[in-house]
């Protein structure tokens, strides 16, 4: 499972019935407009004593690793390998069942205030599906790679989402090879697709005709919340995505195709 993924979802309604789902203003195909969108990525690297580091790479959970290049137990059944190639360069590789999911090439600036992450995600065939050059600024103290890091940028990933009716009064949301199904009853519904962590589900409620709110969970733990709003003319979808434990949300703007 990607640690910085952009989750784009939809749910719930105050009204029920098949006709509502089929005529829901959220249904259709949507494409993100990067020029109107802002992503904020926060990560934390803490010294854990000796040559160990505690990493929070955006999932709201901590992984403790030694940067010696070996595959070590990570989140959601993955392995994480961090190689200290030089005092100012780390290479980060995450795998699932031996297959590489993502890489990150971290480089520190000479003054230690900026961290650049040349980040890529891969599909099961090894082809790049996402490539982003993150630039983080240090907030607070710390030295070397240890510290709190924040990156604010316009996304470059060509995100497209398709939303359709599901089981009468529900909705389905598909991005790449992952589909989320939701109903408007506040219950958690499992997603379908590759590389999803066990126990991943989404619950939702409808605020009004043009606004829905949903919560992604792994088991009983909430990992993010999202507020989705449709413009009055039905042409623009705005998603305010707030990862758990983070101070600032991502704001993603989509246009109807």
Chain-wise SSE layout:
Layout: H1 18-22, E1 28-32, E2 39-47, E3 53-56, E4 63-65, E5 72-73, E6 78-86, E7 89-96, E8 99-108, E9 114-122, E10 128-139, E11 147-153, E12 160-166, E13 170-175, E14 178-182, E15 189-192, E16 200-208, E17 211-218, E18 221-230, E19 236-243, E20 250-256
Antiparallel strand pairs: 1-12, 1-20, 2-3, 2-11, 3-4, 5-6, 6-7, 7-8, 8-9, 9-10, 10-11, 12-13, 13-14, 14-15, 15-16, 16-17, 17-18, 18-19, 19-20
Note down, in words, how this protein is organized.
By secondary structure, the protein is an all-beta fold. The chain folds into two domains: 18-38 and 157-256, Beta Barrel (Lipocalin), CATH 2.40.128; 41-153, no CATH class. The chain has one helix and 20 strands. The chain has a ten-stranded antiparallel barrel. β2 and β3 (53-56) form a beta hairpin. It is globular, with a radius of gyration of 19 Å. Residues 1-21 have low confidence and may be disordered.
Number of helices: 1
Structural class: mainly beta
Could you tell me the CATH topology label of the largest domain.
Lipocalin
| Main sheet specs | 10 strands, antiparallel, barrel
Q: Provide the residue-averaged pLDDT.
A: 85
- Total domain units: 2
Cα radius of gyration in angstroms: 19 Å
Q: State the strand order across the main sheet.
A: 1-12-13-14-15-16-17-18-19-20
Total strands: the figure is: 20
Low-confidence stretches: 1-21
> Which descriptor suits the 3D outline?
globular
Q: Any guess at the CATH architecture of the largest domain? A: Beta Barrel
Residue share in helix = under 10%
Q: How large a portion of the residues is in β-strands, by DSSP E?
A: over 45%
Q: What is the CATH superfamily label of the largest domain?
A: Calycin beta-barrel core domain
| N→C terminal distance | 28 Å
> What top-tier CATH class of the largest domain fits best?
Mainly Beta
Reading the helices and strands in chain order gives HEEEEEEEEEEEEEEEEEEEE
């Amino acid at each position: 499972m990607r640690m910085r993924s952009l989750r784009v979802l939809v749910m719930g309604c105050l009204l029920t019935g098949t006709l509502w789902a089929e005529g829901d203003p959220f249904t259709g195909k949507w494409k993100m407009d990067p020029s109107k969108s802002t992503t904020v990525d926060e990560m934390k690297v803490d010294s854990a004593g000796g040559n160990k580091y505690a990493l929070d790479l955006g999932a709201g959970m901590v992984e403790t690793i030694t940067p010696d290049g070996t595959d070590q137990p990570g989140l959601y059944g993955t392995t994480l390998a961090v190689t200290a190639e030089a005092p100012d360069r780390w290479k980060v590789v995450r795998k699932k069942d031996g297959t590489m999911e993502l890489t990150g090439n971290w480089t520190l600036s000479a003054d230690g205030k900026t961290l650049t992450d040349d980040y890529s995600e891969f599909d099961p065939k090894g082809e790049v599906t996402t490539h982003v050059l993150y630039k983080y600024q240090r907030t607070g103290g710390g030295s070397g790679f240890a510290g709190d890091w924040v990156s604010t940028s316009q996304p470059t990933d060509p995100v497209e989402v398709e939303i359709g009716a599901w089981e009468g009064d529900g909705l389905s949301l598909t991005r790449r090879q992952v589909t989320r199904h939701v109903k408007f009853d506040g219950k958690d519904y499992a997603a379908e697709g590759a590389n999803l962590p066990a126990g991943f589900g989404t619950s939702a409620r409808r605020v009004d005709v043009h606004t829905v709110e949903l919560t992604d969970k792994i088991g009983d733990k909430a990992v993010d919340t999202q507020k989705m709003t449709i413009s009055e003319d039905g042409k623009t979808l705005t998603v305010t995505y707030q990862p758990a434990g983070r101070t600032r949300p991502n704001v993603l703007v989509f246009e109807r195709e």
